[in-house]
């Protein structure tokens, strides 16, 4: 009996794991993207309400690209860009 109980619990755990690992549905993705756009993109519920999934996806991709390419003002990357710009300006003046 103990073996049967262990098997039942094992397969129940596998079924639960499969449910957790399912990809989100289109409606769930739309909701997640809308929530992100409301908090990070500054959009309101009214602005997003009438838009289709594809339109929201384009806005989301645009916002994610902006966030992913962000460079902090005091970072090394920003300073190296400023040096390159200054160097090219000096050569242009000559």
Automatic annotation (TrEMBL):
**Superkingdom:** Eukaryota
Name the UniProt record assigns to this protein: Uncharacterized protein
- Source organism (scientific name): Tanacetum coccineum
């Amino acid at each position: 009996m103990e073996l049967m109980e262990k098997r039942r619990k094992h397969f129940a755990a596998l079924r639960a794991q499969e449910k957790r690992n399912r990809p989100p549905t289109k409606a769930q993705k739309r909701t997640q993207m809308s929530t992100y756009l409301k908090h990070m993109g500054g959009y309101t519920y009214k602005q997003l309400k009438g838009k289709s999934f594809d339109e929201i996806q384009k806005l989301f991709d645009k916002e994610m690209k902006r966030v992913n390419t962000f460079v902090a003002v005091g970072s090394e990357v920003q300073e190296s860009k400023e040096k390159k710009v200054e160097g090219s300006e000096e050569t242009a003046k000559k």
